[in-house]
Specification:
The radius of gyration is 26 Å and the shape is globular. The strands form five sheets. A seven-stranded mixed sheet has the order 3-5-1-13-10-11-12, sandwiched between helices. The two termini are 31 Å apart. Strand 10 and strand 11 (198-203) form a beta hairpin. It has helices at residues 14-18, 54-57, 115-124, 160-165, 208-219, 246-257, 270-273, 320-323, 351-369, 373-379, 397-407, 468-480, and strands spanning 34-40, 46-52, 62-66, 99-100, 106-112, 126-131, 145-146, 155-157, 169-177, 189-195, 198-203, 226-229, 261-264, 281-289, 295-307, 328-338, 421-422, 425-426, 446-449, 455-459, 487-491. The protein is of the alpha+beta class. The longest helix is centred in the last third of the chain and has 19 residues, at 351-369.
Length: 498
Amino acid sequence: MDSLIGKPVDRKDGPLKVTGKATYAAEWNIKNIAHGVTVQSTITKGTITNIDTSAAQKLKGVLGILTYQNAMRLQKIDSNNPNNGKFAEKDLLPLQTPEIFYNGQHIAVAIAETLEIAEHAASLIKISYNEDKPVLSLNDNNAAVIKPNQPGAETHRGDATGNFSNAQVKVEQTYNTPVYHHNAMEPHATTAIWEGDNLTVYDSTQSVYRNRNAISSILGIENENVRVVSPFIGGGFGSKGFMWANSLLAPMAAKLVNRPLKIALKRTGQMFSCAGRRSLTIQKISIGADNNGRISSTNHTTTCETSFADVFTERAGIATKILYDVPNMDIEQNIVKLNRGTPCPTRAPGEAPGTYAYEVAMDELACQLNIDPLQLRLINYAETNPDDHKEFSGKNLKECYEKGAQSIGWSNRNNKPGANKEGDYLVGYGMATATYPANRSKASVKLRIYKEGNAVAVCCTQDIGTGTYTVMAQVMADALGLPIDKVEIKLGDSLYPQ
């Protein structure tokens, strides 16, 4: 039987998704389901002085209003322990105090028989505040620049400052990258069901196992009493790798009214304020080289935003330390706490904004030296990892450079900036290097093979739309020597092996 690995096959989850039969976090058909709609703060920093729920409570169909005054008490967890999961606001557990950290913070949940009644009830809740002056900008006079207490955030080798000062050619530039929001097709959503002390949570998450641990730890119940289910995710892009308040508010609200309950964040407002984003960055880069293009020093200093609710660091210099063979290097990281929600991983966190800035600086250096930008990168090519001097398990970058250059006619281009035009439009013609790690961790699977010639494998991982069901089916069918239509993959349930 020919190997199925790498062969084009029909996606295992394709028919379910195109026919609408794939079930997402807010789509489970649960009997007697209640609906929760969160109320968000309208100030950026301060304290709630009064919550008037009287008008909302009078609406027919309203089951309850959850606030910090009647919410169950939660427990803080150590988010640095990977087994605990990553709750994105460890210093702001939802509905525990009247304190406001940012505009759009969840401060109440209106619970009703229907979504429409819950939305109307939420609109009737009146909040009074004592407002304080917020910190909103990295350049704010009240903003404090601090160093993150995170391993790997900074790198120092050789004497970058001394070698830069003696360099024959120097580039010094500052690059800014903006905030980007995820806005996946499926919003962040949670459905919660209590059965005595046992809790089942249907959650939109990129980390089923860790979310289970975080929910159980914060709610103060045993791991074995919590089940998290997430067979399909309608996009995450990093934002669903962290756990957000909706994953806790749904079980808290369900407990209050003693009913199954769902919460789905709204596209307008909520997805932009309380579900993460890519942090803005200010990156100062200096590169020193000789007249032949050999780089002797690099300094890459990043300042990014985080929140008062937690610390997230956009480590924009993380790739700089390995891209080229540079003997003297300082990678430095600063963070500034702002009165905004916590940023989070977003599509190549750190690497994406960081390699953009460093690669533009490399082009600036090539321009000063009047050297082909590709040749500059080959002059400084790293045969081994310059950070730890270990051999790469595989590196085909020179081949990529060669094939890329051939495919776009690089050697025949007009290398004068701004010289390429198509009609009234300037056409960019450039190259850059990018990298992203492939990480591994322990995993386990339960496999059942039946005498009828079919097999089923289950694993507590999740498919974020990238074809995990199909890829695992290919691997399994290949290993067992079975046709791919005879194997079944089940994912996204914390009852399965880790």
